[in-house]
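Hey, can you fold this one?
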Amino acid sequence: MLVDRPHFAADYFGPATMLSLHSRLSITDAEFMCVLPAFVDATKRCARVHSLVFSDGGAPSLSQRRRLFDALGDHRRVVRNAVVTDAPSVRFVIGAMSLVVETIQVFAPDQVAEAMNYLGYSIRERRDALDQLALVAKKIPVGRFFAFDRAAERLALPR
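Sure. Predicted structure:
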């Protein structure tokens, strides 16, 4: 696992997909710096990188998003991001970002199939990604990630 903290987890699914779970708490600078180098490296190695995020309200800060944008440089166009959340603050931020960053979209937990379509996942990749996220979620002491739970229920996946 790439990052395993009480309120945030990130791991890779295959060579070019980062899976993230955020609780209601935002990611710290230390946690962000654990993820950033590996994510930037993936954008340099792969023609297309996907990021699938489930958030209960936590998100990178403005300064963290700026660091990510700067670190990606010209490689930012190879990243496609799907954020699954029903938290109004996250939906607002991602909605605003999507006006200038065309490769990021926000989805409600009951739209997880649409999020995976957006990322171009096959049926098999959908199942495998959510199975991987379920394993990651079980290792986090905060207990449950509500956005992920709702999405898994929508796709009738066991948790």
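The chain has six helices and six strands. Let me know if you want another pass with a different chain boundary.
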